[in-house]
Design a protein that fits this description.
Length: about 325
């Protein structure tokens, strides 16, 4: 079964897309790459399910070993042998078999219907006359020996008392009612075109790596291996001073898995508020209730996070707390 995990704490920090180390599919997918090994490679779906999208990622042999090592061949994704593609292939095969069976049944239905219509047609007047003539001759007291019947040749003369010409002509004209298959068979063509929809799971709002805010956008980011504040500032078009200004609880130097607030596309620290990242620990809690619990200004809290009226937060969401 395909595994899906939206909890960032239970996802390997080295999991990412081929060109983006900060984003990944939240389910087992060939588009997920391991950035711990060099070169980066697609990860086998079973390994994603057991380690990358699970709290067990810390026991993954790639995570435990030093960075830069090559991915073992048995953990590299191979679409030709991956067992998860088999159910789809079987569904397409069964769909083709079912459609073929429907075609055969419809063809037999029209064949039998045409045959019954032909068999139930009334016998025309010519056939009735021929049958009556044969019945009258069979009941006549005058008949020929078998040898003469076999060798008699019709003369077309009605003057003979044996009625040989009439008998022979009657046999020749008697129609043989033989059921025949319809000359034209209706053809019904079914075209089965399998459609495979490939959709990526959209990351829900108030998650890590999802912009938060309205006028000024912020990003709550988890630091990966090899990142520092300077590289983050360059990547998100901000400045080191702006990042330091908004993070009220940031510990320097930053460490791997540290959570940093980044003001997107704003390198001016003036006017930026002091903020703190907070992960929600309760389900179905409203911003009003959370603001009261955290003792923060409700209006500023809702503005910073761009909360909608009637919105409910769930356990695991990330929000910005003004300090």
């Amino acid at each position: 079964m395909t595994k899906s995990n939206n909890n960032p704490n239970n996802i390997c920090p080295f999991l990412g897309l081929s060109d983006d180390t900060t984003s990944h599919m939240a389910f087992t997918s060939p588009e997920n790459f391991c950035h711990r090994c060099k070169p980066i490679v697609q990860i086998k779906l079973e390994h994603q399910n057991d380690y990358c999208l699970d709290a067990e990622f810390k026991n993954c042999p790639i995570y435990v070993n030093d960075a830069g090592k090559r991915m073992p061949a048995d953990l590299v994704y191979d679409g030709r042998t991956d067992r998860r593609s088999a159910p789809l292939d079987r569904r397409i095969l069964w769909a083709g078999i079912i459609l073929a069976g429907i075609f055969v049944i419809i063809t037999l239905f029209f064949f039998i219907r045409s045959f019954n219509s032909r068999e139930n047609q009334p016998i025309d007047s010519f056939s009735i006359s021929a049958i009556q003539s044969l019945t009258a001759i069979a009941s006549s007291p005058t008949s020929l020996p078998p040898t003469e019947m076999d060798t008699a040749t019709p003369t077309g003369s009605p003057s003979s008392s044996t009625s040989l010409p009439i008998f022979t002509a009657t046999i020749t004209l008697f129609p043989t009612l033989t059921p025949t298959a319809p000359t034209s068979t209706p053809t019904i063509t079914f075209t089965a075109t399998p459609v495979i929809l490939k959709t990526a799971t959209q990351i829900p709002p108030h998650s890590l790596e999802v912009p938060i805010g309205k006028d000024q956008l912020y990003l709550i980011h988890k630091v990966a291996d090899g990142e520092n504040l300077s590289t983050l500032a360059e990547k998100y078009k901000t400045s080191l001073e702006a990042i330091l200004e908004v993070n009220s609880t940031l510990v320097i130097p930053i460490r791997i898995d540290a959570v940093v607030i980044i003001p997107l596309k704003n390198d001016d620290p003036l006017g930026l508020p002091k903020l703190e990242p907070y992960q929600v620990t309760q389900s179905q809690i409203t911003p009003e209730t959370l603001a009261e619990l955290l003792k923060v200004d409700l209006a500023l809290f809702k503005s910073l996070n761009d909360f909608k009226d009637g919105e409910e937060l769930v356990k695991g969401n990330w929000v910005l707390i003004p300090r």
